[in-house]
Design brief:
Blueprint lengths: L3 E2 L7 E6 L13 H10 L4 E2 L20 E2 L2 E4 L6 E4 L11 H10 L3 E4 L13 H6 L5 E6 L12 H9 L5 E5 L12 E6 L4 H10 L2 E4 L4 E7 L2 E6 L2 E8 L3 E7 L2 E5 L12 E8 L4 E4 L2 E3 L1
Parallel strand pairs: 2-3, 3-4, 8-9
Antiparallel strand pairs: 1-19, 2-10, 5-6, 6-7, 10-11, 11-18, 12-13, 13-16, 14-15, 14-17, 17-18, 17-19
Length: 292
């Protein structure tokens, strides 16, 4: 009998943050302290300034803000862009992005390919390249900056392709903010053991978080084959499985699913994930839960 494997921890605190932002240390228009002040004023719990190929040292700013500052770099030169979360240094942007991922892991960090559907061909990251690479933790399934650039801000299609091929990768939603109007478009809400950079990194690495553009998830409960979700403001909650198949759609802010009873072809599926749809296109994406 199938059993859901849940990435969510038993004990912790929900913390909201963005892990993709830029300052004047690369191509942002505001210095780091102004970027930090903006996110802090909006009630964010953590932030990563991920300047291009440059580590903006958060140690310089931690004393001036109650937010948890997570060190990060966006590796950009000589290939598709890759977030390096939990960085201690800016690794060399090798043309072979597998070498970059290996260096990130050696540094104790988290690798996340950024905005895969950016640019006119909707293929900043070709799918075969994402399938070739090994060892990255997640994928940007939403990038707010791309709302105003060629391509698609959302990349759940790429995510489902990877998950359906057996890859266990988490979904991130980020601002990729460069200007004041880029802020608070997409964020990640981690279930962390404590308010520290290490605890937040651990939650992101283990998948103990959900991604959102406006829907707030209040409760996620997994017991055996039962999956219960409660939100503050979703109009519809959908259960999705391999290859993006919508197995069930429930109207309202709460839903309870029993897996695999609600899978149409249960033997052909390896995971389920939940999308929460709110008004005006607001979304929340839970991390995939694998059928064990």
């Amino acid at each position: 009998m199938a059993k859901l494997g849940s990435p969510y921890a038993d004990d912790g605190t929900w913390l909201r943050g963005n892990v993709h932002a830029h300052s004047t240390n690369s191509d942002g228009v505001r210095p780091p302290d102004q970027v930090i002040e903006d996110y802090a004023a909006r009630g964010y719990d953590f932030l990563a300034i991920s300047d291009h190929d440059t580590l903006t040292d958060p140690a310089e700013y931690r004393s001036g803000s109650a937010m948890v500052m997570v060190p990060a770099v966006e590796i950009s030169s000589d290939g598709p862009h890759m977030l390096h979360l939990g960085a201690t240094e800016a690794v060399h942007p090798d043309e072979d992005r597998q070498t970059v991922i290996d260096a990130i892991r050696d540094d104790g960090g988290i690798a996340v390919p950024a905005h895969p559907n950016w640019q006119e061909a909707f293929a900043h990251w070709p799918q075969d390249e994402l399938e070739r690479l090994q060892g990255y933790t997640g994928l940007e399934i939403y990038n707010g900056l791309i709302e105003h650039h060629p391509g698609a801000a959302t990349a759940t299609d790429r995510w489902d392709q990877l998950l359906s091929a057996g890859r266990r990768v988490w979904g991130f939603a980020n601002d990729d903010s460069h200007r004041p109007w880029d802020v608070a478009q997409g964020w990640n809400v981690v279930y962390a053991a404590e308010r520290t950079p290490q605890a937040i990194r651990n939650a992101l690495k283990s998948g103990s978080f959900y991604a959102s553009t406006g829907v707030t998830v209040q409760r996620i409960e997994v017991s055996g084959e039962k999956l219960a979700v409660e939100t503050a403001n979703a109009d519809r909650i959908r259960l999705i499985s391999d290859h993006g198949v919508v197995q069930q759609s429930v109207t309202g802010p709460t839903a309870t699913f029993r897996v695999p009873d609600q899978l149409v072809h249960r033997n052909e599926h390896s995971y389920v994930r939940v999308e929460c749809v709110g008004r005006g296109g607001d979304m929340a994406w839970l991390q995939p839960m694998f059928l064990e």
